[in-house]
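Why should sequence recovery work at all? Because a backbone constrains its sequence more than one might expect. Tight turns favour small or flexible residues, buried strands favour hydrophobic ones, and helices have their own preferences. The token representation captures these environments compactly. In the example below, the structure is given first.
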């Protein structure tokens, strides 16, 4: 801290404090000097790159405890939790976005060619590819540009491509990149010990690979990176906190599962520069062995291979050195045939064959230490009876396989915490014995599976449940309601209704949802609730962040009630009577009654609902980024009609379903309103 205070004093008055860095002053002396210097002055001070909340607290509560009127203190940090500690309100935090393509190109060209127009035509495409790797990060762009600027006239196009292909695979060794490497290394060494292996583990995945959050966390657990001495602790929740911490430290980037899907940020990627670093560190520590298309062969090392990741099928895999392999992952579909004998990997913990052209996995019953078995999107038709011998198995992923019925021995997997199946798979009797399960999806239930529905209530540790209901009768409805009532730890409930055009009778008004519920998703094509269930209210669901529901008719009171949900972030609500054409769009939704409504909402989809932006009073929905609503073209001609987007400060995307064939006037009005908004949000139309 002494160094920080000395630097602040020096920057405030370089002449007066020219030798301050050599002074042997105590911390209190430095603080008093700083307070005295700033006393009565109006100032703007920027403190760059704060890494620790405690450091900020000491700075704020000592030297800047009495801020002069009109003065401001600005901080920068790469860690989200630190930014939150630095501000009294979330509205005071500005999240820097990556540079746009145009700005990235300008920065790159000016550094390499000294002129934006100095790039020759033959280097335009490779420049674009290099900038894509840099991902809009100024430090990465400047570092790579500096490397090329040293002698760009002497470098051929092939040499530029050679540089491009080396980014992200630990092959660049040039002094021009040392500054960037130092910063990244500092970020790595600043990680707590429990996060370092979690980050290095990401080098298993290929460049630009979309890494699903759930899959990664379950693999961390299976590798033993996530551990708690307290038996009541959910390892997944602990692993999820590790994931969030890596995001907060900007070591990984959150992305949507469907492109820029704001409400479904359940995936991440590793920036190429970070991947370059962790691949190098992993290789140095023999943490992970990667076989890819960079021309490498199986390393001729005396050291044992612990974790093997194969990215290319044109590689000879020598299984004679794999007796100690703990993790085996394949990212290409036809390499399994070249692997001689996976059954010889006797200490294997993680086997991930997702997407591989494999049909026979009879050997897995002999891999007694297996914790994670990923067979998603393979041609496997059945599991061996010996699967029940895998008493340490935590995760079993069978989605997209050809399995029609699970082996009865599956119910012996008492440590199984995550089971992914397809709704068409028939589960064996006794599924209620899997009492360690925290995640189950997608379970198919019908009126014929009454016993299975009842057994669901025995899985009291479930946090995530996805169910497809088909042709439920009254007895099944009641059994499902009772079973769900026993799941007091449930955080996410997704129910897909696969029935004819009818009202949903599931979960009566007397059902009491768990207070832990955060996500509630009812999916159906034709089925809908007659009205909003009474148990969907702020008191019963104080933590609810995601809601998707279809109602027979959506009234103003429903929108008003949902606006009072304190944690709601994503809302999708359908008015069935309008969508199916039973009723016409006659009036827009009236304005809501309070400016305190929708405090956390970022995404609102009002489908078949005339919920125009003007219904949000000024001050409501301060974080709303994505809005979808229905709009009748005839409303434009009404006197004093107001779309009212301007007071939604965070708006980034607007989707409008325009009703009426002649929509040109409505389109023009909408474009004008969007253009007038300070954010210039993206505008998309659908005309009915």
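From this structural description, the recovered sequence reads:
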């Amino acid at each position: 801290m002494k160094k920080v205070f000395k630097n602040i004093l020096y920057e405030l008055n370089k002449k007066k404090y020219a030798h301050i860095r050599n002074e042997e002053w105590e911390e209190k002396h430095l603080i008093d000097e700083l307070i005295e210097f700033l006393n009565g002055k109006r100032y703007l001070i920027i403190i760059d790159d704060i890494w620790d909340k405690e450091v900020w607290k000491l700075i704020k509560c000592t030297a800047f405890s009495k801020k002069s009127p009109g003065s401001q203190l600005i901080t920068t940090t790469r860690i989200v939790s630190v930014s939150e500690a630095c501000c009294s309100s979330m509205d005071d935090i500005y999240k820097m976005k990556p540079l746009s393509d145009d700005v990235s190109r300008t920065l790159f060209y000016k550094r390499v060619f000294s002129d934006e127009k100095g790039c020759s035509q033959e280097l335009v495409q490779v420049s674009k590819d290099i900038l894509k790797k840099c991902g809009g990060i100024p430090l990465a762009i400047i570092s790579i540009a500096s490397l090329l600027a040293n002698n760009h006239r002497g470098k051929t196009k092939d040499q530029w491509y050679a540089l491009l292909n080396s980014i992200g695979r630990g092959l660049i060794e040039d002094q021009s990149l040392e500054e960037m490497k130092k910063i990244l290394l500092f970020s790595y060494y600043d990680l707590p010990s429990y996060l370092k292996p979690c980050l290095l583990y990401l080098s298993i995945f290929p460049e630009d690979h979309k890494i699903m959050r759930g899959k990664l966390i379950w693999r961390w657990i299976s590798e033993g990176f996530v551990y708690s001495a307290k038996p009541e602790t959910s390892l997944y929740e602990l692993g999820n906190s590790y994931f969030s911490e890596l995001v907060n430290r900007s070591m990984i980037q959150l992305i949507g599962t469907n492109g820029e899907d704001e409400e479904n940020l359940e995936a991440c990627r590793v920036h190429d520069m970070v991947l370059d670093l962790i691949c190098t560190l992993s290789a140095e520590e023999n943490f992970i062995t990667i076989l890819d298309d960079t021309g490498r062969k199986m390393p001729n090392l005396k050291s044992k291979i612990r974790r093997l990741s194969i990215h290319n099928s044109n590689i000879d895999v020598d299984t004679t050195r794999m007796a100690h392999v703990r993790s085996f992952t394949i990212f290409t579909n036809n390499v399994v045939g070249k692997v001689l004998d996976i059954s010889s990997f006797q200490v294997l913990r993680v086997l991930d064959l997702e997407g591989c052209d494999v049909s026979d996995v009879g050997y897995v019953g002999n891999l007694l230490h297996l914790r994670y078995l990923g067979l998603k999107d393979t041609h496997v038709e059945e599991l061996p009876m010996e699967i029940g011998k895998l008493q340490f198995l935590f995760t079993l992923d069978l989605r997209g396989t050809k399995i029609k019925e699970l082996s009865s021995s599956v119910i012996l997997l008492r440590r199984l915490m995550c089971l992914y199946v397809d709704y068409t798979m028939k589960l064996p009797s006794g599924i209620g014995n899997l009492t360690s399960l925290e995640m189950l999806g997608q379970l198919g239930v019908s009126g014929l599976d009454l016993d299975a529905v009842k057994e669901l209530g025995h899985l009291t540790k479930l946090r995530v449940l996805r169910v497809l209901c088909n042709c439920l009768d009254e007895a099944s409805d009641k059994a499902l309601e009772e079973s769900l009532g026993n799941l007091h730890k449930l955080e996410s409930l997704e129910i897909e209704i696969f029935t004819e055009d009818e009202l949903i009778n599931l979960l009566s008004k007397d059902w009491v949802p768990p207070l832990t519920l955060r996500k509630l998703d009812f999916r159906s094509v034709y089925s809908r609730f007659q009205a909003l269930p009474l148990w969907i209210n702020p008191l019963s669901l104080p933590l609810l962040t995601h809601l998707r529901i279809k109602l027979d008719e959506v009234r103003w009171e429903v929108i008003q009630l949902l606006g009072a949900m304190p944690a709601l972030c994503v809302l999708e609500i359908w008015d069935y009577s309008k969508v199916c054409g039973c009723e016409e769009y006659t009036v827009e939704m009236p304005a809501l009654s309070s400016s305190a409504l929708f405090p956390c909402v970022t995404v609102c989809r009002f489908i078949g609902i005339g919920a125009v932006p003007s219904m949000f009073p000024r001050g409501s929905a301060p974080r709303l980024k994505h809005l979808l609503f229905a709009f009748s073209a005839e409303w434009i001609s009404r006197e004093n009609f107001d779309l009212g987007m301007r007071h939604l400060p965070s708006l980034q995307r607007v989707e409008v379903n325009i009703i009426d064939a002649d929509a040109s006037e409505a389109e023009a009005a909408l474009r004008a309103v969007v253009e007038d908004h300070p954010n210039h949000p993206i505008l998309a139309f659908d005309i009915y």
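A few observations help interpret the result. DSSP finds 18 helices and 22 strands in the chain.
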